[in-house]
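Sample log: Amino acid/amide ABC transporter membrane protein 1, HAAT family.
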Amino acid sequence: MMMDIGLVVFGGLSWAMATFLVAAGLTLIFGILHILNFAHGGFFMVGAYLAWAMIEALGGGVSIWTYIAVALVSGAVVGALGVLVDVTIFRRLRDVEDAYALIATYALLMVCIGAIELIWGLDFRAIMPPEALNSALFIGDLIAPTFTIFIIVCGVVVYVALEVFMARTETGKLVRIVAHDAWMARLLGLDVTRIYLITVVISFALAGLAGGLLVANQGLSPELGGVFLLQAFGVVIVGGMGSIRGAFLAALLLGQIESIGGMLFPNYPGIFYLVALAGLLLIRPQGLLTKGRTEWV
């Protein structure tokens, strides 16, 4: 019985932190630009393929520090792509109806998928985790893969880093001001366009970083982005649109529910997640933490 509880909790944490790594950038960009960025899953996938290509170029077997460095480089490259996307697309979407923004970002997702297929083809690709993460820890009767523990730690680190950035840094405070009232921020002389750009770059960098960190033990294919995007959207919506803390709590909650469902009904993966998502939205449609349109802390 204790082993079953441990498996449920550990499995739920694994799902939660992997999903939060993807959802972090998604909720950040909505909190500032109020755009539901369907292309986020595509740029997550771009980050994963970039990481795969770099690791393959290094011979496949890399150390844990090289693996982390590759993930950071993937994040930096995708963040740089965010500059191009903001200048060419997002700036044109700030004063249009939400439906047009959804169509535009969905089209951008299709572009990402097409680029992946053109460059890397349709074949499935995979790499093994670094040797230091390719083992398991035995905690009582629980067998905990070290790579899964690594992902859980990465998810917590990203969450803490975002909380510190938003609450303690000058740039983070400016981002919160713009999120609360961009019109007033302009009257106060703030460069709102620059703050928007910073937010987009961070959001895209988080997508690329998530792809780099999660690339090991993933079957890479052009459909990868859609799978994680669905989970990430659920976490963002349940947590409260624009709430980083809410997304983190929602990931933990939905992760445990999904883990319980996977144990009770292994032939129906994902069904508990969808049922829980619908139920939570009926009970609290505004999300777990959001009081208004944006609630950062």
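Observation: The beta strands are 136-139, 142-145.
Observation: The chain is about 75% helix and 5% strand.
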